[in-house]
Amino acid sequence: MGERKKRALFIDRDGTLVKEPPVDYQLDSLEKLEFVPRVMRNLYFIRQRLDFEFVMVTNQDGLGTPSFPEETFWPAHNLMLKTLAGEGIVFDDIRIDPSLPEENSPNRKPRTGMLTRYMTDEYDLANSFVIGDRLTDMELARNLGAKGIWLRPSLEGAEEELKAYPVALSPALIAEDWDRIAEFLFAGERRAIVRRATKETDIYVDWNLDGTGKTEIATGLGFFDHMLEQIGKHSGTDLTIRVKGDLNVDEHHTIEDTAIALGEALLQALGDKRGIERYGYCLPMDDCLCGVALDFGGRPWLVWDAEFRREKVGDMPTEMFLHFFKSLSDAARMNLNIRAEGTNEHHKIEGIFKALARSIKMAIRRDIYKYELPSTKGML
């Protein structure tokens, strides 16, 4: 059995470890040194719990020239390293490229010239990560054959920036803070892809529990699509559902089988459920009060207290609402207690779906610092 390959975190400096100074973007005085929030506790956690080597990789434009003398760079840089070391965070390697962009140096990120020693069979680059605040860092990840983690102040606008970038990039994670980065590296991705094909339906579900609320839903039933979009949007998860069903017969198989596939995806994505909150609940919507309490306890059960007087809402039969949630509860092995009161049928069912989404959001919240099973039994 061969020796296990090494993994590395290639970490940008300015904007990722320390805040990038405005105007000149040069960290050239002690007064400008300010760490990115929560970077220290999370880097220490990663250093203690995981086996990554730490490699700092930074472009410092014109370092050593009159515009950026070395004597103004090193005091702040060394204080940064000393402060990190005092918190148990030591870098195994530091790579600094001082070239200017117009020089087209092979060492300048996103080029890989500074990192050739890592591009050998000694390192598992496919399971290593580049962490940075710019898309050039994500391009460096692509050029290395590693994965990218893009740290940015907000998730808003990220997709547009990626589309506008001249090179096709797909970061493994877009994160707003170091808490999210540490969680991802330690506990992994919570994503499941389920394909369910029968003589009656062909269903594809891709559910990423640690997404941003993006949805792509196409079941052939407009109102059902609208309800399923609520689940992704209001739970903050990324949800793709594509269904080809026998709608020429009726809506029953499409709705039931979608619920089963959704439940299977949720169960798979949750994994062993360590660190999750486990429970969630509740929502008002206009004239309605809708409550969804759930428990990812490993046992299915549904309590349904909602009546609908119309035969259909949109193109979805109201008799299928109960059936959808029963199938979802069974497949996901979760308790669902659903209650709704009010006069507007559309608002009632939409409120139920939104309440379900908010309950999921609460229950899947994960804390890597309390990474235990939320159960006295020792299993869920």
Automatic annotation (TrEMBL):
Gene3D superfamilies to which the protein is assigned, alphabetical: HAD superfamily/HAD-like, Imidazole glycerol phosphate dehydratase, domain 1
Positions that bind Mg(2+): 12, 14, 133
Pathway: Amino-acid biosynthesis; L-histidine biosynthesis; L-histidine from 5-phospho-alpha-D-ribose 1-diphosphate: step 8/9; Amino-acid biosynthesis; L-histidine biosynthesis; L-histidine from 5-phospho-alpha-D-ribose 1-diphosphate: step 6/9
GO molecular function: histidinol-phosphatase activity; imidazoleglycerol-phosphate dehydratase activity; metal ion binding
Cellular compartments annotated: Cytoplasm
Catalytic residues in the record: 12 (nucleophile), 14 (proton donor)
InterPro entries the UniProt entry points to: HAD-like_sf, HAD-SF_hydro_IIIA, HAD_sf, His_synth_bifunc_HisB, HisB_N, Histidinol-phos, IGPD_sf, ImidazoleglycerolP_deHydtase
GO biological process, one term: L-histidine biosynthetic process
UniProt superkingdom: Bacteria
Main location: cytoplasm
Cross-referenced Pfam families: Hydrolase_like, IGPD
Name under which the protein is recorded: Histidine biosynthesis bifunctional protein HisB
Organism expressing this protein natively: Candidatus Parabacteroides intestinigallinarum
Taxonomy of the source species: Bacteria, Pseudomonadati, Bacteroidota, Bacteroidia, Bacteroidales
Gene behind the chain: hisB
